[in-house]
Amino acid sequence: MRAGVFFPALGLAALVLAQDPKPQLTQAEAEAAVNAIVPELQSIRGLNFKTKVPVTVIDDRRAREYALARFRTMTPEAKIRADQTAYALLGLVPADVDVLKTLLDVLEEQAGGFYDPGTKSFYLLDDMPKEATTLLAAHEMTHALEDQRYDIDGRIAKLIDDDDASFALSALIEGSATKAAATYVANGIAAGTLNQDQLGAMGAGVESERLDAMPAVMRRQLLGPYVLGLTFLARGDVDAAWAHPPRSSEQILHPDKYWNPKLRDEPKPVSIPDPSRQFGDGWTRAGSGVLGELTLGSLVGAATPKASELASGSTAWTNAAASGWGGDRFELWTSGDASVVLLATVWDTAKDAAEFAAALPAERAEFAFKRAGTKVGIVAGLASERRDALLALLVKP
């Protein structure tokens, strides 16, 4: 799974399955669950496995160790630090939050198993309800099936500096798996092959205290690929999307901007002119990335659902202030203990830019913005006397 800046291809299923003290899942039970769903899954997806996928039962400790190791493998340590600092300066996460620990704690609460594109293996946690293994297997084995055809890690690696494109790819990956699992369940209900214990386990109570306590922007990036990816793929063919993957959260939030050829809206490339002269000696660029409509929505008041609200489908995820996004780029600049984040955004129309600017926090300390036409620039952090010159640079024609 890769959902924006904080969730790089962990591959862990955030399926909210209730954990309970029933007898632990055995290796034989795990293999049987996977073998049972493979034929129908291949039929649902219209694809066949090229090779058999190994299945292993592990405990929570090993799952957490895996998540941490994969996170650090897929995302350089310097980027993790820079992204967290930039998000804190923009007010997207509290300054004292430990992003990596928060993520791992939530995945420990939520995960029942995961497919690892690195080892090409499927892992099930030993403390998950046995009755729910087939649903989880249908979801995660869809990742395995598509990885054999579409090379998930290879695609993720090309997007390391574009967090918004990474989110869009994650929405395709998780949306496809969620759709396949939902079809598997619907077919099982229609055929009477899913028993009441299995159906009850799939609908069991949700343990989501840590998930709901996450900063809203992190919860958006973690839940969004599953929920928004499913609605995005309701509009078109999964394999057509794999052939030309969506490139922005805007396309996921507004499917017509991807699926409708007349309305297709590709992100505009945005660059920040070299600010070295404005900063002066001793400042260096420490990181950069793209936020996109989904993340910028958190900056301008877009609602973020809690786990208990997902079933209603009533949360819009974006708002008028975040809509009309054309493109953006942020850069983090540092000098000793001082840090400043520059954010350049471009909007479809001057009206869209004005709506975004009007919704920005006007009285936040060490946070300033400027609009010119379709551009809005933001400077956050200890910019001091450099602030106005930096803002002018960001909205320069």
Question: Unreliable stretches, pLDDT < 50, 5 or more residues?
Answer: 1-21
Distance from N terminus to C terminus (CA atoms, Å) equals 38 Å
- Rg measurement, Å: 22 Å
What fraction strand?
Answer: 5-15%
Mean pLDDT: 88
Number of domains: 2
Using the alpha-carbon principal axes, give the shape: globular
- The topology string of helices and strands comes to HEHHHEEHHHHHHHHHHEHEEHEEH
- Helical amount: 40-55%
Total beta strands: 8
Q: Strands of the largest sheet, in order across it? A: 4-5-6-8-7
Main sheet makeup: 5 strands, antiparallel
> How many individual helices?
17
Structural class, from secondary structure content?
Answer: alpha+beta
Write up what this structure looks like.
- This protein is an alpha+beta fold.
- The protein has two domains: 4-9 and 18-165 and 178-218, no CATH class; 276-394, no CATH class.
- The chain is 47% helix and 13% strand.
- The chain has 17 helices and eight strands.
- The protein has helices at residues 27-45, 60-74, 77-90, 99-110, 133-150, 152-157, 163-191, 196-202, 209-213, 216-233, 238-243, 249-253, 256-259, 276-279, 292-299, 350-359, 387-394; strands at 55-58, 113-116, 121-125, 284-289, 325-335, 338-347, 367-372, 375-381.
- The strands form two sheets. Strands 4-5-6-8-7 form a five-stranded antiparallel β-sheet, with helices on both faces.
- Helix 1 packs across helix 7 (163-191), helix 2 packs across helix 4 and helix 5 crosses helix 7 (163-191).
- The longest helix has 29 residues, at 163-191.
- It is globular.
- Residues 1-21 have low confidence and may be disordered.
